[in-house]
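Table S2 (continued). Query chain:
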Amino acid sequence: MDFVLTLVNGLSLGGIYAMIALGYTMVYGIAKMLNFAHGDIIMVGGYTVLIFLSINPILAIVASMIFCLLLGIVVEKVAYKPLRGASPLAVLITAIGVSYLLQSLALIIFGAQPEYVIIADLGVLNIGEISIGYNTIITLVSTVIIMIALTLFVKYTKIGRAMVAVSEDKDAARLMGININMIITITFAIGSSLAALAGVFSLLKVPTITPTYGSMPGIKAFTAAVIGGIGSIPGAMVGGIFLGIVECICNSIPELAPYTIAIEFLILIVILLVKPSGILGKKRREKV
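Corresponding output:
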């Protein structure tokens, strides 16, 4: 029974990591850059929920997604678009700078003390001897719906097919009349709104937030994206679920619990040694 509960919690946590990882993998697959400020979008979404929560919880969630969507667009336009032809190192340093900027602004506005963000008390579902929180069930079901919707969006919509084309070959996509800048902006918008939603589900699990709230989930989600195959949407899903299950299993074993983070990164190292492109990643030939 305990293993079933651990597995369900792992799937729920993995769904949160997968939603965050999708932002990393979509931006990398299309813009060929690593947006290390992505984790801090989660934090911004959490504080947005805090601001609007006294009005209405649903409004707070919607406001969080809209604000993070707009923030993602602004960050892309202001910080990353001018560096479109710059070296990867310059883009990476800029991403780290944006990350610290967002954290510092949150620190100035809200202070360093943790804020409690109790969105809703959803209660517990009892199935025999197993007690599963409704927040866990909602997170799991929502994740599945979002993953299916995103997969269908990419596969069957005009914008989704344009995203695939840009990720495969930017020059060819440009020749076919695809607006590369618009596609990259849309990608940032989608990834940022998913990060906000992931932040909401995280707050349902642990209802406290600080200016560094998104740092560790962001790093773990990036790890999940690399494990699954960075640049691959199914890879982000697989990597997120895998990492969430591993984390919950390790935390359920007292002897392994203190070393959970070390074990997660050890798995990352092993997978990169065995299959550098990740579980579902594909090797790509670089143009010379």
